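FORM 7B: Structural annotation worksheet

SECTION A. Query
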Amino acid sequence: MKSKYHFSFEALIVYQKAMEFAEIVNQLVQKFPKHEMFNLSSQFQRSADLIGYNIAEGSSGTDTNFNRYLQIAWESTHESVCASTKARLRNYNTFEEDEENRKRLTEISKMLTSLKKHLKSKIFKNNNVV
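SECTION B. Predicted structure
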């Protein structure tokens, strides 16, 4: 069911993909051992969630501020890669699941990089207007 209330950041495909990835991670960590609940499970969920959180939070400010939040989201994609790798190494997820995570994170990372470049271009143009 789609809400009749809409925020502009929700239209960003990178946000939508980040939200989807976080839900995939939430499902993946359900099968991790209980002793990982406050360790790898928590860290993996947090890093995955922070991608979307930072896109949403940063979108309401200036382009410069948004760019800073997008950098944090981008860094969270790297943290999520590490968490996925650790999960594979500990045999909590399969090679195929890790590859799928990497594929999704690569796409999100590239989209964040493109959006950051676009914002930097806008910032540069606005600062050089006579």
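SECTION C. Observations
The mean pLDDT is 94. Helices lie at 13-29, 40-58, 63-89, 95-127.

SECTION D. Sign-off
Analyst initials: ____
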